[in-house]
Amino acid sequence: MKTAPAIFPKNLKIMKSLGEHIQLARLRRRLSAEQMAKRTGVSRKTIYNIEQGSPTIAIGSYLQVLFVLGLERVLLQVAAADPLGRKLQDAGILTPKRAPKLKSDQNNLDCDEKRHNDLGVFRLGS
Fold first, then answer.
1. Per-residue pLDDT tens for 91-104?
2. Helix or strand (DSSP H, E) at 4
3. The domain containing residue 43 runs over which residues?
4. What is the pTM of this model?
5. What is the DSSP letter of 80?
6. Structural domain contains residue 101
7. Of 12, 46, 83, 121, which has the most beta carbons under 10 Å away?
8. Backbone CA torsion sign across 75, 77, 80, 85
9. DSSP character for 124?
10. Using CA atoms, how far apart are residues 50 and 33, in angstroms rounded to an integer?
11. What is the mean pLDDT of the chain?
12. For the chain, what is the total number of helices (H) and then of strands (E)?
């Protein structure tokens, strides 16, 4: 049985609104949940969960529903306008895509200890 991921209440409200918008779009097109399920290739229960804004449903299922509704291109707008990211990029503050790899767990311990010592934090018993 799937467990719901930990998600902030504000984000749950966004998911719920998305589900409601999808349901309204389906109803405007006079499609039943059964018809939507057949056209998307997912179960009627999945359609119901999408329309409830369930965070456990795969984004691919959301995309398939949006495609049937003719709204799939809306997803292309997600993160397209990124004012904060552009400001960070312009200021040269972007972080690397990946953190550097350390050679062993001992290196992790040494790095953590050095970082804590640099911050004036010392481990008890040392």
1. 876 566 776 787 76
2. none
3. 9-77
4. 0.67
5. T
6. no
7. 46
8. negative
9. T
10. 11
11. 83
12. 6, 0
Residues with Cβ within 8 Å of 124's Cβ and at least 6 positions away in sequence, in order, are none
Residue 10: CB atoms within 10 Å: 7
> What are 32-59's pLDDT values in tens digits?
999 999 999 999 999 999 999 999 999 9
> Helix (H, G, I), strand (E, B), or coil: what is residue 57?
coil
Cα 23 to Cα 50: distance, rounded to the nearest angstrom = 8
Asked whether residue 50 is domain-assigned, the answer is yes
The answer to the question of residue 94 being in a domain is no
Q: Structural domain tally of the chain?
A: 1
Within 10 angstroms of residue 65's Cβ, the number of other Cβ atoms is 26
CATH code assigned at 37:
1.10.260.40
In a domain, 87, yes or no: no
